[in-house]
């Protein structure tokens, strides 16, 4: 059984007022880091899960401007995924796969650093890439010009888990609800990279308190609730959940 390494990087953050997000919360601005997870398989293959925020300057039109009012992106130069990998002695060219959990700006901002990688996307994300609705929160201007021609592996975890590395060490799982085609990754059956299936592990039990507007910006609310129930089962079975916007105390998770 593989015993690879799983590392965590916070690549910028945003803040949001919890009182706007949920009923019954005091005024408190919560910090949501943009988490990126690197899996290094013992055979040398590497898989990045999401890419965090890109550089601070956005040129993403009116929709981008409105997005920054709602969820202001904050990132310093040394916090990009490229800078942090380099600081760890990992060249960006050495990353084999970049899995995108979904296409929101805080997950694809660092795509630009990985022109050599194979991007792993769900089929439903291709539909968003081809023809996004404004409500989907996808800002095509944040993707690099070369992205349409980049190497891609298109998967459909909705039809069953996808064994990315062929030995069960890294399985892509369908976690529908938050965004169209949203997916996670089960690493060595111990760690579930759960993307934005919840905005935080501590919020999983308070789904009923989420207000109407934040509910509405999710893709499908029924699926969101059902995904939370599945995540709670995974947790009860001893799987550690890692959401994109939770703080992690340690860099090395596995
Ligand atoms: Zn999201």
Notes on the protein architecture:
With 254 residues, the chain is an alpha/beta fold. It has one domain: Metallo-beta-lactamase, Chain A, CATH 3.60.15. 21% of the residues lie in helices and 24% in strands. It is built from 7 helices and 11 strands. It has helices at residues 18-21, 61-70, 81-87, 105-108, 123-130, 212-216, 221-236; strands spanning 5-17, 29-40, 46-49, 97-99, 118-122, 152-155, 162-163, 170-174, 183-187, 191-195, 240-243. The strands form 2 sheets. It has a 6-stranded mixed sheet with strand order 1-2-3-4-5-6. Strands 7-8-9-10-11 form a 5-stranded mixed sheet, with helices on one face. The chain is globular. It binds zinc ion. Residues 102, 104, 178-179, 196 line the site of zinc ion (ZN). Zinc ion binds at residues 102, 104, 178-179, 196.
Summarize the topology.
Blueprint: E1 5-17, H1 18-21, E2 29-40, E3 46-49, H2 61-70, H3 81-87, E4 97-99, H4 105-108, E5 118-122, H5 123-130, E6 152-155, E7 162-163, E8 170-174, E9 183-187, E10 191-195, H6 212-216, H7 221-236, E11 240-243
Parallel strand pairs: 3-4, 4-5, 5-6, 10-11
Antiparallel strand pairs: 1-2, 2-3, 7-8, 8-9, 9-10
The structure holds zinc ion (ZN).
Residues 102, 104, 178-179, 196 line the site of zinc ion.
């Amino acid at each position: 059984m593989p015993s690879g390494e799983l590392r965590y990087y916070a690549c910028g953050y945003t803040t949001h007022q919890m009182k706007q997000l949920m009923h019954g919360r005091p005024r408190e601005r919560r910090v949501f880091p943009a988490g990126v997870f690197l899996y290094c398989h013992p055979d040398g293959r590497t898989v990045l899960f999401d890419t965090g925020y890109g550089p601070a300057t956005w040129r993403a039109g009116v929709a981008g401007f409105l997005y920054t009012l709602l969820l202001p992106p904050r990132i310093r130069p040394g916090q990009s995924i490229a800078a942090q990998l380099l600081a760890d002695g990992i060249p960006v060219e050495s990353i084999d796969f970049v899995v995108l959990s979904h296409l929101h700006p805080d997950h694809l901002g660092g795509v630009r650093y990985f022109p050599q990688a194979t991007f792993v996307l769900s089929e439903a994300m291709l539909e968003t890439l081809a023809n996004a609705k404004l409500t989907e929160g996808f800002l095509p201007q944040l993707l690099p010009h070369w992205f349409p021609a980049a190497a891609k592996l298109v998967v459909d975890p909705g039809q069953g888990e996808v064994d990315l590395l062929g030995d069960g060490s890294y399985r892509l799982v369908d976690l529908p609800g938050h965004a169209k085609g949203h997916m996670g990754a089960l690493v060595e059956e111990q760690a579930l990279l759960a993307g934005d299936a919840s905005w935080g592990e501590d919020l999983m039990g308070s789904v009923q308190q989420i207000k109407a507007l934040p509910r509405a910006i999710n893709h499908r609310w029924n699926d969101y609730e059902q995904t939370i129930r599945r995540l709670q089962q995974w947790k009860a079975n001893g799987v550690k959940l890692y959401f994109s916007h939770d703080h992690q105390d340690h860099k090395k998770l596995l």
